Amino acid sequence: MVRNLLVTAAVYLGAVGLALLLVPVQFGVDAVPSDPAPELVALLRLLGGPFLGIAVLNWRSRAAAEEARNNVLLANLVGFGVVAANDIVGVITGDARDLARVFMIVHISFATAFAIAWVRDRQRASMAV
User: Fold this and answer.
1) Any stretches that span the bilayer, and where are they (predicted)?
2) Average pLDDT of the segment spanning 74-87
3) How far apart (Å, rounded) are the C-alpha atoms in residues 54 and 73?
4) Burial of 71 by CB count in 10 Å (0-12 exposed, 13-18 middle, 19+ buried)?
């Protein structure tokens, strides 16, 4: 389960990172103006780098030792949890773009899956002691 979750998250985050780098205006549909300032496009592209970095970390951690993998699971839980919370607030207040509803479901799903994986990994580690 953990291996598949890390691979799936790596693919998702890699796709988001590439989209931010290669087609930031199109990726930001309904959130980015059709004629954005170059500084905004540069900022969106800048955000693509960390997404790609986390994607690589997830990919490389899919077969990592338990302690290292547990840290990666926790980091993903925090990241996806914060993003999901932001999506929820945006959808409830109406401040988010329509597409945020889809991303909200994706991010809540990832946050939930990482929470379950993190708890199970910790329980397994404590039983092994």
Assistant:
1) 41-59, 71-93, 99-119
2) 97
3) 11
4) middle
